[in-house]
Amino acid sequence: MRLQSIESDGTFKEFARIDLDAERILERWLEHNPDAILEDSRVLVIGRQVRTNLDTRIDLLGIDAHGDVVVVELKRDRTPRDTLAQALEYASYAEALSVEQLEDIFQRYSGEEAPLADFHRSYFSLNSEEAVSFNKSQRIVIAGQTITREVRQTAVFLRRKGIPVTCLEFGLFGTGAGQRALSSEVVVGEDISPTGGPETDSLPRLSQADFFGSLDENGRPFFERLFEFAATQGRSVQWGTNGFSLNVDLVDAHVALCFGYRPASAFGQSLYTVLYRKGGLLRKTAAPTAVADGLAKKLGETGLVASAGKELKCVLNRPWTSEQIGVVLSWLQELEDAIREYGSVE
Question: Is 253 exposed, middle or buried (0-12, 13-18, 19+ CB in 10 A)?
Answer without folding.
Answer: middle
